[in-house]
Amino acid sequence: MTDRPGYTPQDVLRDVSLTRRIGHVVAGLGGLAMAVLVGALWVTEPGPLPVRTRLAFGAVILLGLAWAGVAGWALARRPLFAADRVIAAGLALTASVSVGGATVAVAATQAGTAAVLTAVGVGTVLVAAAAVALVRARAHRRRLLDHARRLEATPPD
Fold first, then answer.
1. Is the pLDDT of residue 44 over 90?
2. Max Cα–Cα distance, the chain, nearest Å
């Protein structure tokens, strides 16, 4: 018989709350739905699409599949020390920069100054929010890893 419980610090700190699980399910299903809908739209087009449209559709499909993949991984693997948060925030930052840049480029070539300024403003807000999420996720992960090290270093009573 042992004085230690039958679980390790990893078991305690790895668990995912019901709220986060629901969030992963929603993000995964949303990403999958986005990829399937855009893919179906692309496949059912009567003629060939312009190159820029094909690139945009491909990027949207990839982002949707990436969100579905991250959510599936998080639900199947039980994220270790908030790694899912860091990956999701990195994906959000990548998506925000990509979509913001593309929106500004389209506005610059197709619309006036007001549209470009609006695209820059919205893109900046989205990129800033995603960057803050990434910084917070990394800090949270670092705190959990430090806590796990302290728990493992504590000798049993």
1. yes
2. 75
